[in-house]
Amino acid sequence: MKAEIRYQSISGNTEAVALAMGKVLGIPAKSVEEPIANDVGLVFLGGGIYASGLGGRLKHFVSHLTAGNPATVVCFSTSMNKGDISFRVKPLLEKKGITLHPTELNISETLIKPYKPDVSKQVYDMITNFVADIKV
């Protein structure tokens, strides 16, 4: 299944997780400002919660997805509250007939050093285990 990674990051935390996920999967992690290719089966979508809502670029990206492309979205975040991204993305995806994977990766921002491009071994292992559970 063809997979892509997209993220929105303000402090660099979500970007660091996205880049590590890209290393694990062997695919590039790209900003939500870059649209996905055609015929993508799975998108790993990362972001944070800003002022109690999705970041504007993340919301714009999701609103411009087309029905069935991707078939499934898997969320990840560095938010303090698990499930924040999925909760806010799900209604947008449902309108387009895109499946939201039931599992979300949430890595506490306390485990990531802000503005650092690399993640710790602990975080890298969390990402590796998460990705292994997703059928890519």
What are the main properties of this structure?
single chain; alpha/beta; 8 strands; globular; six-stranded parallel β-sheet; two-stranded antiparallel sheet; 136 residues; Rossmann fold
Description:
With 136 residues, the protein is of the alpha/beta class. It has one domain (3-114): Flavodoxin domain (Rossmann fold). It has helices at 13-25, 56-63, 84-94, 121-133; strands at 3-7, 29-31, 42-47, 49-50, 53-54, 72-77, 99-100, 105-106. The strands form two sheets. Strands 1, 2, 3, 6, 7 and 8 form a six-stranded parallel sheet that branches. Helix 3 links the parallel strand 6 (72-77) and strand 7 (99-100). Helix 1 (13-25) packs across helix 4. The relative contact order is 0.21.
CATH superfamily: Flavodoxin domain
Helical coverage, percent range:
25-40%
Oligomer: single chain
Number of domains: 1
What is the 3D form? globular
Separation of termini?
6 Å
Tally of DSSP helical segments? 4
Radius of gyration: 13 Å
CATH topology call = Rossmann fold
Q: What fraction strand?
A: 15-25%
The second-level CATH architecture is 3-Layer(aba) Sandwich
SS content category: alpha/beta
CATH first level: which class?
Answer: Alpha Beta
Low-confidence stretches: none
Mean pLDDT: 89
Largest sheet: 6 strands, parallel
State the total count of DSSP E strands: 8
**Order of secondary-structure elements:** EHEEEEHEHEEH
